[in-house]
Amino acid sequence: MKKTTNDYPWKFTSVGGTVRVKIESGEDIRHLGELDRKLWTVLSCPVTGLEFDGKTLQLLDADGDGKIRVDEVIAAAQWLTGIVKDADLILKGEDELPFTAFNEENPDGARLLASARQILANLGIEKESIALEDTADNVKIFAGTRFNGDGIITPASAPDEATAGLIETIAGIASAVDR
Questions:
Q1: Which residues contact 171 (CB under 8 A, 6 or more apart)?
Q2: Are 122 and 149 in contact (CB under 8 A)?
Q3: What ranges make up the beta strands (E) of the chain?
Q4: Nearest-angstrom CA–CA distance, 103 and 136
Q5: Is 140 helix (H, G, I), strand (E, B) or coil?
């Protein structure tokens, strides 16, 4: 069954007597904002109690009200399809993204590519893609960097020996442990 709403050629299927839109491509995801609200099967869902990653659900819940609504799904879909060159990659379910897949013309895509390269550099890994596994351990990612994100300033982060000496003196008084 095909139906056009707002000029995008949506495909529909009947599941349990309910007609639903079929999401089969990245372009379908890109055009979610054009789908008539009357054709959405669900207009909101809770961020808890679902068989879906809880952290992802919390990220989708942009206003933090405990529910994911249509506008939040649309915003996430537009952002996600904007940061990659080929939106079909979203549906492949792979845990690794080649650097060539990032859309550098999109400011967020360019920032994510730079972040991916920095993460791998921090880990001492040389490859042209980033995997979910590469991003999993923040402590490991920042452990060897001058500024590792923990807020502790060490002598190694100083631009010169005099500043390093001052930091060491201050560190001798403080009791915080650097990552």
A1: 153, 154, 155
A2: no
A3: 2-5, 8-15, 18-21, 44-46, 67-69, 96-98, 129-131
A4: 23
A5: helix
HSE-up of 129 (CA within 13 Å, CB side)?
9
Alpha-carbon distance values, 31 to 10, 52, 80, 82, 169 (Å): 9, 23, 12, 12, 58
Question: Tokens in use for 81?
Answer: 């399809």
- Predicted model pTM: 0.76
- Are 68 and 88 in contact by the 8 Å Cβ rule? The answer is no
DSSP letter at 31 equals T
Tokens of 51: 């068989």
Residue with tokens 């904002």: 33
Q: Nearest to residue 62, comparing CAs of 70, 31, 107, 103?
A: 70
- Encoding tokens for residue 11? 């495909």
Residue 1 has pLDDT above 50, yes or no: no
* Residue count (the chain): 179
DSSP codes of every residue in 74-124: HHHHHHHHHHBS-GGGGGG--SEEEGGGB-TTSHHHHHHHHHHHHHHHHHT
pLDDT band at residue 161 under the 50/70/90 scheme: confident
Q: In whole angstroms, what is the distance from residue 82 CA to residue 110 CA?
A: 11
Q: Residue 25: exposed, middle, or buried by beta-carbon count in 10 A (0-12, 13-18, 19+)? A: middle
